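One chain shown below:
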Amino acid sequence: MAKGLQDFLWTMLLLFCAIQELGSWAMHTEVEGPGLGEPGDPALLASGRVKRGWVWNQFFVVEEYTGTEPLYVGKIHSDSDEGDGSIKYTISGEGAGTIFLIDEITGDIHATERLDREQKTFYTLRAQARDRQTDQLLEPESEFIIKVQDINDSEPRFLEGPYIGSVAELSPVGTSVMQVMASDADDPTYGSSARVVYSVLEGEQHFTVDSKTGVIRTAVADLDRETQDRYEVVIRATDMAGQLGGLSGSTTVTIVVTDVNDNPPRFPQKMYQFSIVETAPVGTAIGRVKAEDSDVGENTDMTYQVKDEEGVEMFKVTTDSNTQEAVITVQKPLDYESKKVHTVVVEALNKFVDPRFVDLGTFRDQTIVRVSVLDVDEPPEFRPPSNLMEVQEDAHVGSIVGVVTALDPDTANHPVRYAIDRSTDAERIFDIDAKTGAIVTGKVLDRETAGWHNITVLAMEADNHSQVSRASLRIRILDVNDNPPELATPYEAAVCEDAKPGQLIQTISVVDRDEPQSGHRFYFTLAPEATNNHHFSLLDIQDNTAAVHTQRVGFNRQEQDVFLLPILVVDSGPPALSSTGTLTIRVCGCDSNGAIQSCNSTAYVVSATLSPGALIALLVCVLILVVLVLLILTLKRHHKSHLTSEDDEDMRDNVIKYNDEGGGEQDTEAYDMSALRSLYDFSEIKAGDGGGGPGEGGPGRNPASELHALPQWVQSPDLDFSVFRDYICRKVEQADEDLSVPPYDSFQTYAFEGSDSPVPSLSSINTWSSGSEQDFSYLGGWGPRFRQLAALYAGRRGEEDSEES
């Protein structure tokens, strides 16, 4: 069959080429004009009528030619061509010289390559006729087109695949699912090569397709997602309008069946059992149950509810939005002793019901939940739960305020003991009988101090104090009339000297710390000691206030400047209590309008005393000044003690320097010369040097001889400091070996006195002569101020001479 189709196609191709060749010759026409120029040329019009220069037409070439010889396309010819070969035909443009070749003598055009219309539908070329000898154009260049003739060589293709569509389950027959479309690359204007029709290859039991539009529709009305949720449908597209020999292509369409709410919820079990302890607090979850639904998505959303009256009162059902489970919780406290088992009817129903499927049945289901209550050891319970008691404030210590009662709710009914939480009654104002629960007063009560008391009473099992119940108790202290009324403030009033009788001076009010249930009622009158008063009168206004008026004409503050008016105030009881307050009335001078101008020395003026705030500020300032003075004194004392401690330091390695010339003979007690003598032990120097006799430097030498041995400083050009070095080393060794003294490791620098002093130095440094070699007689010529010093050294020299002799 394929070979016959091929022969048919080639026959049609040859027939088409023959018709094309005849058409090109039939199109030879003539035009008026002398030459081969373009129509309308002025030169041609002036010469008269001539034949048209070109004899040719647009050409057609069949695509996909598979022959071995070049395919003949057409022929171009000029009227001036006499067949002698003097004219050369050439072409230029798209494909000229490569795809299309022209015979220069005959003008025949052949296609040398296989053409594809789907890649390029036509080629534009230009033709020239030239003189072969001179290569000049004999005719103007003209443009022509070679069109590629289509054949049915492209099958339809589904370019938008893969296709995925959806349709709701239980949709009626003919419901549109989606549309598919195939594309054919052949020429839609030529023949039926691009005319496509559609058909179903697989899945025709459930779906159909429109042959022209490609719209896929349902073929049945009982699509059930719960049975099969997707279908694979193969759609075929055929060109040539489905005729024999047409090419075809196919695609697979995935059709998803979407869910509708066509399945009601169903509980897997008709009864569920749970247990919970009786002490579980309200809101405790007992358990979860769930109704199954074959649908998906929001069609499985459910709500649960309790249907029986008993369950509604004791339990609550909520829906977990994540798991679609019914959560059963405690709504009221449970009591094992009252009821051991509760039965609850739980109903599940879809939240979203599709009215199209209500005829399928009710979309709800019910199940029974049995809740068993477990017994536990519970603390006592207060009965009745009243938390208010009252007691008179004048009740004696030990009076009963009230009785609290608590019972053990368990079957065992253990005895109960009572106590008061002392953190709520730290002052132990109340006590409680541990066995009876009677609350009594422990101290004297005072309503004015504390009108309410809030205490916590504890009830516990006698043999198990860990089972404790607490009850808050409010005790109200009832008032008794135990406080007399008092004037609201120490009243002071002023009256003008020219006051007239009946003039209002002051309005009096009182306060009472008691609070009678019927309210306060006070009575005012003058005290008995004011019965002889003829200056002022007191009027009870009957609204718990009283008014004081003048009774005479004019006052004289020279005679009496202050009046003290005692006022008696009585309350309504019972019992009636009273108190006396004093109203101080000052006589003052007033102007013509009654404004007070001046009073006596204790008159009705602003007191000269300072206000409490000013007194406090003054005291703070005084306190700050005292602190500053004490601080300064402390610093000074600390400074003096520091200087004293510095003066008290050991002077063994220090140089004592006196910048005072001394007080002469009268100043013998100003300095302690022993301190100077103890600073230097020149006997050690002499002993180390070996220059003294056997008695010098020994332990028997007295301080006077040491002082007398002080040599005189003589400046020498060649100083030997080895003596100082040896001396310091010996001192260091002594300090290191003596463990009873602090480590005096300081190094002292002794500066030279200089050479410009008119008086020779008394320093013993840099001299190694013994005391017997020194002559201190020159000290006598230094004047009265050094007489004591001269006598001291001269005396020592005399003693040494006597000892030597």
Summary: The longest strand covers residues 464-478. The mean pLDDT is 78. Residues 612-647 form the longest helix (36 residues).
